[in-house]
Amino acid sequence: MTSASCGGAGYWQQRADVVVIGTGVAGLVAALAAVREGRKVVVLSKIAETATFYAQGGIAVVLPDALRADGDSVSAHVADTLAAGGGLCDADAVRSIVADGYAAVADLVDAGARFDEAAPGHWSLTREGGHSRRRIIHAGGDATGAEVQRALDHAATHLDIRRNHVALQICHDGDQVTGVLVHSSDGPGVVHAPSVILATGGLGHLYAATTNPDGSTGDGVALALQAGLRVTDIEFIQFHPTMLYSGGAGGRRPLITEALRGEGARLVDRRGGSVTAGVHPLGDLAPRDVVAAAIDARLRETGDPCVYLDATGIEDVRGRFPTVTAACLAAGIDPAVHPIPVVPGAHYSCGGVHTDVHGRTDLPGLFAAGEVARTGMHGANRLASNSLLEGLVVGGRAGRAASAHAGQSGPTTAVAPAAVRLPVLARPALQHAMSRHASVVRDADGLVRLAGMLADAPRRLVTDRGGAEDAALTLTARAIAAAALARTESRGCHHRADHPETDAAQAFSISVRTDTTADPVVTAPQVAG
Ligand code: SIN
C-alpha cells in the first residue's frame, strides 16, 4: 500500500482519536461506543438524511427464551440467513452477529428506542421474506428506522458532529491510518486521527431509481478502494422487490415494506395472477432476490411497467403501515382500497469494504461498519431486516475496536497536500448505464459495454461534495462491473442472463481492488481470503 498523505499549508487542521464518517445506525452506535471508552471522537456528516431513517420493516432479532413463544433460536435465524445468502455467507460471522443481536437491541432501548408491543412488555413480531419465524421487531408500524434514528440522534446530542463535512480521502502512511482529508464550507481540511470508521451507508444512487436517500453514493467503498483496500461481494446489489412505481420517476422512491407481505399482502400482475406461484415454496415470502427476479421476469413477459402489491385484505392496513399509506396517498393510491403499483428498486449493497466482525479492514486504523462493510453476514443476498441488526452489533464493536487501536497508536500526523484526480462519469449517464447493464439481470455484452464507458471516464480534480460523490459512484461502478463480469453464474442478487444457473465451482467471494495511484483501474478479481 503506498501512502496517502493529507493536509499542509492552506488546510484547516483538527485532531481526534477516532473519526466516524456517517451518522446512520452504525456510525452513531460506533461513535457513542468510542466516546464511552473516553476517546475524542469527531463525526463527519455529509448530509442529514440517512438510510437508517428510511428503514421500514424492522430489526430481525432472536429474543431471550423468556420473551418468545414460537421456538425461535439463534440457530434458526442463522440458518435462514445462510439460506438467503446463496452459499456465500461466512457462517461464523453470521452466528457471531446474530448471537449479539438482543444485547445490541437492549442497548438501543436503554438509549430510548421504543418498539411496538402486542401486549404490555411483549414486542409485536412480524415476518419478512426468507424468515422461518416471526422475529422482526418494529416501531411506529412501519417507521422502525425513524425511531432508531430518533433515539440515536437524541443519545448523540453531546457528540462533536460536523455537518456538511465530506470525506475526500483516507490519509495513511502505508502501514496505518493517519487521518481524513475533508471538504467543508471552510474549505479543505484534515482531521488527524489514528482510527477512522467508515459508516457511509450504501450506493443506491448508482441507479436511476432507488429506495436510498440522496447521499447513498458509494462513498465508503470508493474511499477504501482509493486506499488500496479490497471490496468483496460487491456484485451483489439487492433490489427490493417492492418500490413504489409512479410512472418511472427516478431518484429516491418510496419503499413499500416487505412486512406487508408478512401480514398477507399478495404480489399480482395486471390480470390478478400471482407473480411468485410455482417459483419458490415460500411464495411471496421467498427471499428478496427470488421475488425481485420473479417480478422482473413477469414484467419482461407481459411488457407491463409494474406489478401490484394487493394489501387490501390486511386488517387496518392504514393504521399498521402509516409510512407506506402516506407515500401511497401522496401518489393518489389508497392501499386499503387499491393494489399498490410496484417495481424492484436498488436497495442495498450486500458486499462492501472487506472487514472482520469487529469492522477491522486490512489497513490498521481503518474500520467499516453498516452497509458499507462486508463482514460476511449477507453473502450473495441479505435477509430482510438483518441490516439494522448488523449496524447495531458491528457498529458498537467497531467503535470499541477503533478506540482500542487509538489507545495503542497515540496521536498521528497527516502531512503534505494531496491533489486528488479521479475518474468521473456524468451522473445521469452513469445511472442510465448501471440501470441498463448492471441491474436485476445482467449479461456479458452489457457489462463489457458498461466497463468500457467507465474506463473512458475523464479524470477530474475532486474538491467538493458533488465531485466526490460522482467520483465515488464511478469508482464503485467500476468495481461492480468487474466483479459482475467475473462471476459467470447466477447466484443470490446476481442474475446473469447468459449464465442462468448457479455454478457450484463458483461458491466463493470475489474481491476487487483498484490501483492505489490517482489513476484507479479495477484489477483482476481475487478470491476473498
Ligand atoms: C423492508 O421493510 O421491506 C425493508 C427492510 C430491509 O431492507 O431489511
Automatic annotation (TrEMBL):
Gene Ontology molecular function:
L-aspartate oxidase activity; steroid dehydrogenase activity, acting on the CH-CH group of donors
The record ties this protein, via InterPro entries, to: FAD-dep_OxRdtase_2_FAD-bd, FAD/NAD-bd_sf, Fum_R/Succ_DH_flav-like_C_sf, Fum_Rdtase/Succ_DH_flav-like_C, NadB, Succ_DH/fumarate_Rdtase_cat_sf
Q: What is its EC number?
A: 1.4.3.16
Main localization is: cytoplasm
Q: Which GO terms describe its biological process?
A: 'de novo' NAD+ biosynthetic process from L-aspartate
Group of enzyme by EC: oxidoreductase
The UniProt record lists the FAD-dependent oxidoreductase 2 FAD-binding domain at 17-388
Which locations, inside or outside the cell, does it occupy? Cytoplasm
The pathway entry for this protein reads as: Cofactor biosynthesis; NAD(+) biosynthesis; iminoaspartate from L-aspartate (oxidase route): step 1/1
Explain the purpose of this protein: Catalyzes the oxidation of L-aspartate to iminoaspartate, the first step in the de novo biosynthesis of NAD(+).
Can you name this protein?
A: L-aspartate oxidase
Q: Which organism is it from?
A: Mycobacterium adipatum
